[in-house]
Amino acid sequence: MDLKEFFEMGGYAGYVWTSYGLTALILLWNWWAARRSEAEAQTAARRRNELALERSS
Amino acid sequence: MSWTWFHKLASPPHAYRILGSLAPWFGWASLALILLATWWGLVKAPADYQQGDGFRILYVHAPSAWMSMFTYVVMAVAAGVGLVWRIKLAHAAAAACAPIGASFTFLALATGSIWGKPMWGTWWVWDARLTSELLLLFLYLGYMALRASFDDPQRADRASAVLALVGVINVPIIHYSVNWWSTLHQPASVTKFDKPSIDLAMLIPLFLMIIGFQLYFGWAVSRRLRGEILRRERNANWLKEAA
Concatenated DSSP letters for chain B? Predict the structure, then answer.
């Protein structure tokens, strides 16, 4: 199969590639948002630990 | 029967550690499967005799629609467990599911709309399947908004759990909507008791993509749940080691 034919998707290029592009975006957003949510909670917990240590010393 | 295993599993430090070691496995396996299924669906699978290459939207639309409902059921079950047995971890799991489920629901609606235009001649129609799926998106958004409106996490847990449980009625409505009402949307072609009405060459990449999406959900929910656990454990000693 040649590449041009592949990208044309039998005339449905706009629909097919938009769908797959949107899917990639949503998966990337989930990846970024889940990582950020975990990392933020870790930073906050670390800060709480440091504050607790300061108060106890 | 002994329930010690359950209490151990539901203990925050234990869950935090297990999720941390599971997440990379989910992540890499999902990446591999999604890439394989994308190639299979776009290149290897034959074009449809009616829809030509346009049918390839199936491989992102159906898995995201499946995930939108699957995630809601997981969320509602977790919320129910949290409500009945007062397990904080279960509420945390429900909260972790919501944004993931909402994003898959949006994706199912968007790819469905894009697929609908060339095949049905319209981006949107207010029929039973599409309307109930849109309601699912509003349920997720409502759940998140309700949680955000409470300062006290325990009250947020309880109120949002009730909403999650009431909303679960919508899931069978979405699934059976194509049988109960006449809709533009096609009836089930994979999840039925007799033979699926889709050829094996087209079915294999669909299954691979669904499993890939499931594993991806496993990864995302593990990461988010770890964050939720840390946010809820204010003064626990184990936090010192975890963070």
Answer: ---HHHHHHTSHHHHHHHHHHHHHHHHHHHHHHHHHHHHIIIIISPPBTTTBGGGGGHHHHHHHHHHHHHHHHHHHHHHHHHHHH--HHHHHHHHHHHHHHHHHHHHHHHHHHHHHHHHHS-S----HHHHHHHHHHHHHHHHHHHHHT-SSHHHHHHHHHHHHHHHTTHHHHHHHHHHHS--SSPPPSSSSSS--SS-HHHHHHHHHHHHHHHHHHHHHHHHHHHHHHHHH-SS-THHHHH-
CA distance B161 to B81: 9
The region of weakest confidence among A49-53, B3-7, B204-208 is: B3-7
DSSP A1: -
Report chain B residues touching chain A, CB-CB < 8 A. 34, 38, 42-43, 47, 52-54, 56-57, 60-61, 64, 99-100, 103-104, 106-107, 110-111, 114-115, 117-118, 216, 219-220, 223-224, 226-231, 233-235, 239-240, 242-243
Amino acid at B29: A
Contact B101, B68 (CB under 8 A): yes
The predicted pLDDT at position B235 comes to 65
- What are the pLDDT digits (tens) for B180-196? 887 788 887 776 656 66
Q: What is the pTM of this model?
A: 0.93
- Closest by CA position to B221, among listed B65, B59, B104: B104
For residues B1 and B40, the model is more confident at B40
